[in-house]
């Protein structure tokens, strides 16, 4: 209770940083999976990096279809935490776990059997098609484990317990450091699996984290106890989880689908450009981690304060988070602009063309990272207020109305060539940040939040 009260009172900056830094560290460590894969696969050559780069957006798309449901768990649990309703925290957690489990099994089966047509669809060339298919198929079996850990992590974050997920991820990343080269290259008489070996290592570590997370939830000594008897799905709660989760899923999946079609644009320029795009995209995924950390912390804080009917404090949280994200990520962007070339060379040390193209991509994107942070944090405010539709509409507009059409026009209809795709990123970040900020300042989300909160409580869910 003391911890919950601490998030509802006192210094907002302290509350934000207390929640955000473990989330940021956990997200950095999760991103490290991809960076470790890229590092070791780069030793196999540019084609190995391209094979994973081309399959990653599709993997992200499939994951996004169910990942929104875990956010729904965060939002609902955070509001019940603010309202001090432990019974509904446990019930919501149990319903979320079983629903996400069922969705993840369906997605794992679908992903495995659709691997080849999907890789063919997005334009994998003959030199990388087999590796990209095998990597995707192995990764598909990890969906169940990955989703179970994500739901554990989201529920813990909803009640403000952010340290435990970070410790678990830290342990699995160290394990992945050992398993990656073992399963990629082999050791002694053990034959490695090449590109697919990176996926095998990830699935093993994902499975371990999932079992640890579920064990903690069933024991119930960390603020949430899930129970088998409460996992019989209730239609009212399925509808509620989907009403919050589907917009978030659509937001993330639309982002992933846009990444996929951007890759389709990139593939027409050859494997070297695909590899450069893959490295730039991974640097971007690392840079966005601080913004996502503050966005998730903002979602938890806003949710708990709305649950406690502290709307003015929720708005102050949004104001401060936006400033931190903008100035902090702008500073990071400047550093990445300066060190773009050595960063690219770190991943693919022996390919001058990939180094040149990849560093150019980073330099073009880097100045807009602060704007990207603004959009992400404001999405966190809207999510915490249970207005996930706003986040979805802003992201869809950003990716599909601005970034993809602009990337197509600049790369195919101007002399920029593939660099036109690079320029679509900062321009779309600027447009999305302006739209999110203007809508936030209108205050419509606050009025809608109070209305929905009263309805929710009156219906017996508070």
TrEMBL record:
Spell out the molecular function terms from Gene Ontology. Answer: antiporter activity; xenobiotic transmembrane transporter activity
> What InterPro entries does this protein's entry cite?
MATE_fam (IPR002528), MATE_MdtK (IPR050222), MdtK-like (IPR048279)
Tell me the superkingdom of the source. Bacteria
> Which UniProt keywords are present, listed alphabetically?
Antiport, Cell membrane, Ion transport, Membrane, Transmembrane, Transmembrane helix, Transport
Q: Does the keyword Nucleus apply?
A: no
> Any keyword Transmembrane helix?
yes
Cellular component aspect of the GO annotation: plasma membrane
Question: Membrane topology per the record?
Answer: Multi-pass membrane protein
A Gene Ontology BP annotation from the UniProt entry: monoatomic ion transport
Task: Extract the coiled-coil ranges from the record.
Answer: none
- Where exactly are the transmembrane stretches of this chain? 12-36, 48-77, 97-115, 135-152, 164-187, 193-218, 256-277, 283-303, 324-340, 360-378, 390-409, 421-440
Where does the protein end up?
Cell membrane
**Family annotation (PANTHER family):** FMN_FAD EXPORTER YEEO-RELATED, MULTIDRUG RESISTANCE PROTEIN NORM-RELATED
Q: What is this protein identified as?
A: Multidrug-efflux transporter
